[in-house]
Amino acid sequence: MTGARRLDGNGIDVEKQKSPVSSLSSWNVQKATNVFHQEHTVSRDTRRELLGSKFRGCTVWFTGLSGAGKTTISFALEAYLISRGIAAYGLDGDNIRTGLNKNLGFSPEDREENIRRVAEVGKLFADSGSVALCAFVSPYKKDRDLARSLHQDSGLTFIEVYVDTPLEECENRDTKGLYKKARAGEIRGFTGIDQPYEAPDSPEIVCKTVENTVEECMMQIVNYLEEFQIIPRNPAKVEDLMVPEELRSQYKAEAETLLSVEITKLDLQWLQVLGEGWAAPLKGFMREKEFLQCQHFNTLQNDELTNQSVPIVLPISTDDKKRLEGVKSICLRYNNQPCAIMRNPEFYEHRKEERCGRQFGTTNQNHPYIKKIFKAGDWLAGGDIQVLDRIQWQDGLDQYRLTPKELKDRFAEIGADAVFAFQLRNPIHNGHALLMQDCRQQLEARGFKKPVLLLHPLGGWTKDDDVPLPVRMEQHQAVLQDRILDPDLTVLAIFPSPMMYAGPTEVQWHAKARLQAGANFYIVGRDPAGMPHPDPPKRDLYEGTHGAKVLTMAPGLKGLEIIPFRVAAYDTKAKAMAFFDPTRKEDFDFISGTRMRGLAREGVQPPDGFMAPAAWKVLQDYYNSLTEA
Question: Which entry of 138, 149, 260, 497 is annotated as an active-site residue?
Answer without folding.
Answer: 138
